Amino acid sequence: MTTARALSLGFVGNVVTNPFSKVAAGLTGLATVACEHFPIGQIEHVLTGATAVDVLIVHLDHRWFFATAPDADGVARAESLAAMVRDRLDRSPGTVILNTVPFVPTSPIESDLHERIETLGRVNAVLFALARENDRVSVIDAAGALAMLGFAAAFRERNRYLYQMPYAPAAVEALTARYGDAVAVRLRARRKVIVVDADNTLWGGVVGEDGVDNLEVDDDYPGIIHTQFQRQLLRLKSLGILLCAVTKNNDEDFRAVFERRVMPLSLDDFVAYRSNWSEKSENIQALAQNLNLGLDSFVFIDDNPFEIEEVRARLPGVECVLFDRTKPEHALTLLDSLTSLRARHVTAEDLSKTEQYRDEAQRAELQRAAPSMAEYLASLDIRLHIARNNVGTLRRVTQLANKTNQFNLTTRRYTEDEVTTAMKEGSVYAARVLDRFGDMGVVGVVIVRDGEIETFLMSCRALGRRIESHVLAHVCRQEGNPALRARYRPSAKNRMVANFYDENGFEPVTAGPEGTEYRLTRGPDDTAYIPIVTE
Known about the structure:
By secondary structure, the protein is of the alpha/beta class.
């Protein structure tokens, strides 16, 4: 079974940081957190010194950058901060989290005000550039978080000078939530699929009763609520989220809406849908099986509380969210509020997900028509590209390590920093698969360190083609160590790989409740039909 990782969390700033300790509470189940608060104002000392924490949160309000207004010196201070962070990360492992400057420029002179606003943007741009160039840096939008509260309500200027804590309790809570999200997104797997209802969700009204032409989905209220919601879904699709639909409707009625109404979403934007009269939990379960994804990858959105509770009760792994079209302020911020959809970056594989799953449907059709499995595999024209210690695969490797549960021999989770360390200390193999239908992207990861395969995993999309045996054979050849060891650590979801090493030329050495340790004997046998290109 997997356990929460240990995580050391450090705080330093030019304000009192102790109230931000509640970040740890938001990481329950993801990490066991130990917090350390460094003395107020010791930013340079902490960044340039030997302090060692997994995550360092550096919180700075505007006074660290400038006294009264954004100026050239403030930009220089931001550049100095960026240089210290770069130097720290070059010297030691860990992640640094910074914040945008929570400040609203003012001036009695319009031209001066414009200059101050532009200069504040330049200060923040230095921090954004740092985060773009270094995966181990995050920048939370502190300014945005406080703007949503209203700056007048967010600050307590008297307390700033008396206690070095300028924020009202609501502001501390908002900032703590942003920091918690920034840490959590590095530890948890992103949910991959939004399953959305149709009637009174994708559009207003019930198509079977109101008719296609009378549905509310246009640029007038209340139809604009549904139009905007569809635009938001389309944007999430462009950021790597798969869209599905489940609706209690006749199939021809559901399809007619997309054929006859002009809407942001088309039927082709959905990787799959179910329009019938079955329970929605049954349809979601069928979608999960069809896409070969776990139910913990799904978010379900519906306007009907009964449907929400039906799915929640029968499929507890699915995140269920109520869409209330009568409250636009809720409906149109719903998707942005779902922390389970957040990620540090979007990989190339994320951006092509819908196409990849359509390709998979074509493979399934080819398999059904093939006379035998051998002829099916041969007809796919599979090519396997395997890279070793390629930093360009860092994000995808980390993503797979944190979301793959079934074909994962140890279910060990990694941060990007830990994968980087593994590349320095051993071998991190990333396996990319191509065939006649397209590029599946990086679908396999193997991490070898100290003569042991500590992680072996494959995306379930790539299974059923014997790709995993080819990857293992390549790793055995590359490591060139007859004493190569491996381990299977059981979890609630990875029983399908319990005998993987036994079936691929490894011999058990010890076995117990915590798993089985193996040593290499002959290695995999059946590895002739896929050509391998090393990168």
